[in-house]
């Protein structure tokens, strides 16, 4: 299963309003900052939507809303446009006779919106989604039916989409389109349903149809028809689901953490769709002196970016722990501080940014949570597109922080003339190939179960690397200790001979991040030093590296990628290794002791 950033639900059944609310409640873990429903009634389409949680929304529904047999619902995790009533879905066209819910990221929404506004369309939100009903409205005005208008609109849209649409002119159907974002259909005894995820369908059926890529579905009360966006008919293939609700919420995985590790390809793909305008404005803001600050995993993202700003943009931008920021940084006047926080609520990071602004700095925020405190304390912010992360241990949010920072590094390098336009275009093309590389790693993380079992009873571990993968090693150590409670330390491999090596004795576990990058040769030297003292070597290596295969006791191969992208592909096996060790030691990786998902105290 792949995720996306919101939850959509649709139904053709008796008592549609209640069914919509129940469906959205089961999808709430996918996004919960605003919610809405649309129902077809005798007077056309009624849309009710609010900022806030579903329970509060349901409690406030007027009785007049509680009627209808065809409807759509949406629970939002804001990606474009702050969480508020106007930006909540469903969105409608100018006439209010078309309503749409959407899950995904529309890359070219600004140019589409400009064209639609020029042609007289009036928008009521700041979302990317709202271009869809207006594009469909134009198709219907030209004589297209609802399905044809939806297909026509999808052809003009670049980006990921799971869309469900209804029209007052065709009140007996729901039309859905799937591109990248997940869409599932359920046909029950008393109705036909569509959903972003399986949990919402289980009360009505345990036979579901996973809508294929690039497909349009017409749902009617008596069944569905499916065809490719090119018009070729498709035969629905039902799948029997034997999950309970808990498993279903986790996409069939035993824990949210493994589900979220598996979601990284699409989370990365969506994060690579960040509007270039935002990146360029943020890059320009990073004028002279600049700093990076974050906590925990977010600090590791900052440290990775610090190496990349130096190597690619030839800019010295120091990474500073948020909790140390006020003591570690003296002169902030006229500088820029890049604050990284997936929750956007970490007190240490907010405090560092508040201090920076007070001392005359500008702030660029990078967060996964639109509407969070960091977005209000930043001069400009960039939103990663992971969707909500339920597991306490950061996985997909770390990977998308790296992706956002990679893009910022290249935009800054271009802005300061460190790379040419051609090199920038080349890097952008390379980044677009990364989701496939990440998928090839995610598909094989199960191979780490054996290694994790083998080392699960160890008391200590070093995580070692050089160059841009030092932060990857620190992050791997953090993952292992925070969910398995095994003591683990991350170090620059070159540092190990300045003291840490004294701990190494027969069987001591050393995890090396050793891909085929410019530091590989020097890392091998450190590996041999450890091996000479009896250490056991578990290494993350580039496919087919025979020399390292020969040296390592255990290894995991990642595909060859540009050097700056190795932190992205190498962090995944370390996440999975920590996960399997925690499970082998009998702990719940989703709820590690002593930790909170967001540390809102100093
Ligand atoms: C990461 O696995 C930890 N849960 C923790 O270190 C986290 O990264 C840190 O608390 C920062 O959180 P933030 O990204 O929400 O600011």
Describe this structure in words.
It is a single chain. Helix content is 36%, strand content 22%. With 602 residues, it is an alpha/beta fold. It has an eight-stranded antiparallel beta sheet, covered by helices on one side. Strand 7 and strand 8 form a beta hairpin. Helix 4 packs across helix 5 and helix 18 runs parallel beside helix 21. 2-deoxy-2-amino glucitol-6-phosphate binds next to helix 10.
Distance between the termini: 37 Å
State the shape. globular
Number of domains: 3
Radius of gyration: 25 Å
| Category by helix and strand content | alpha/beta
CATH superfamily of the largest domain: Aminohydrolase, N-terminal nucleophile (Ntn) domain
Ligands: 2-deoxy-2-amino glucitol-6-phosphate
Number of helices: 21
Enumerate the spans where pLDDT stays under 50 for 5 or more consecutive residues.
none
């Amino acid at each position: 299963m792949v995720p996306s950033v919101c939850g959509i639900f649709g139904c053709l059944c008796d008592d549609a309003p209640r069914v919509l609310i129940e469906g959205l409640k089961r999808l709430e873990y996918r996004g919960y900052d605003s919610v809405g429903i649309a129902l077809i009634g005798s007077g056309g389409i009624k849309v009710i939507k609010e900022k806030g949680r579903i329970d509060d929304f349901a409690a406030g529904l007027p009785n007049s809303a509680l009627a209808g047999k065809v409807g759509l619902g949406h629970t939002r995790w804001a990606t474009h446009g702050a969480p508020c009533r106007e930006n909540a879905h469903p969105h409608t066209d100018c006439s209010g006779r078309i309503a749409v819910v959407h899950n995904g990221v529309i890359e070219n929404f600004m140019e589409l919106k400009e064209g639609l506004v020029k042609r007289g369309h009036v928008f009521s939100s700041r979302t990317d989604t709202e271009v869809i009903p207006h594009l469909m409205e134009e198709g219907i005005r030209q004589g297209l039916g609802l399905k044809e208008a939806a297909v026509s609109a999808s052809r003009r849209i670049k980006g990921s989409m799971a869309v469900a649409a209804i029209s007052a002119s065709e009140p007996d159907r729901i039309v859905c389109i799937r591109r990248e974002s997940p869409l599932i259909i359920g046909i029950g005894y008393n109705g036909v349903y569509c959903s972003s995820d399986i949990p919402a369908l289980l009360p009505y059926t345990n036979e579901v149809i996973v809508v294929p890529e690039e497909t349009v579905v017409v749902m009617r009360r008596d069944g569905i028809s499916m065809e490719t966006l090119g018009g070729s008919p498709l035969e629905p293939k039902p799948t029997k689901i034997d999950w309970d609700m808990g498993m279903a919420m986790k996409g069939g995985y035993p824990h949210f953490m493994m589900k979220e590790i598996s979601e990284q390809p699409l989370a990365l793909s969506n994060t690579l769709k960040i509007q270039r305008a935002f990146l360029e404005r943020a890059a320009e803001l990073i004028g002279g002196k600049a700093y990076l600050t974050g906590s925990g995993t977010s600090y590791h993202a900052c440290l990775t970016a610090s190496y990349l700003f130096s190597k690619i943009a030839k800019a010295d931008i120091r990474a500073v722990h948020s909790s140390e920021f006020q003591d570690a940084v003296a002169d902030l006047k006229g500088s820029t501080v890049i604050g990284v926080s997936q929750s956007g609520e970490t007190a240490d990071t907010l405090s560092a940014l508040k201090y920076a602004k007070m001392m005359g700095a500008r702030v660029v925020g990078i967060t996964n949570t639109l509407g969070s405190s960091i977005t209000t304390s930043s001069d400009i912010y960039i939103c990663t597109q992971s969707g909500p992360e339920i597991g306490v241990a950061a996985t997909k949010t770390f990977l998308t922080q790296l992706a956002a920072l990679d893009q910022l590094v290249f935009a800054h390098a271009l802005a300061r003339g460190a790379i040419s336009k051609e090199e920038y275009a080349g890097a952008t093309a390379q980044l677009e190939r990364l989701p496939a590389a990440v998928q090839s790693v995610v598909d094989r993380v199960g191979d780490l179960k054996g290694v994790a079992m083998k080392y699960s009873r160890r008391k200590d571990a070093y995580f070692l690397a050089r160059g841009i993968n030092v932060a990857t090693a620190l992050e791997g150590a953090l993952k292992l200790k925070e969910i398995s409670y095994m003591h683990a330390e991350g170090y620059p491999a070159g540092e190990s001979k300045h003291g840490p090596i004294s701990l190494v004795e027969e069987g001591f576990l050393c995890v090396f991040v050793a891909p085929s990058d410019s530091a590989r040769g020097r890392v091998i030297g450190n590996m041999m030093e450890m091996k000479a003292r009896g250490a056991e070597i578990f290494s993350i290596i580039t496919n087919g590296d025979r020399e390292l295969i020969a040296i390592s006791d255990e290894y995991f191969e990642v595909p060859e990628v540009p050097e700056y992208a190795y932190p992205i592909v190498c962090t995944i096996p370390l996440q999975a290794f920590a996960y399997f060790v925690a499970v082998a030691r009998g702990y719940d990786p989703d709820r590690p002791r002593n930790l909170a998902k967001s540390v809102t105290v100093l």
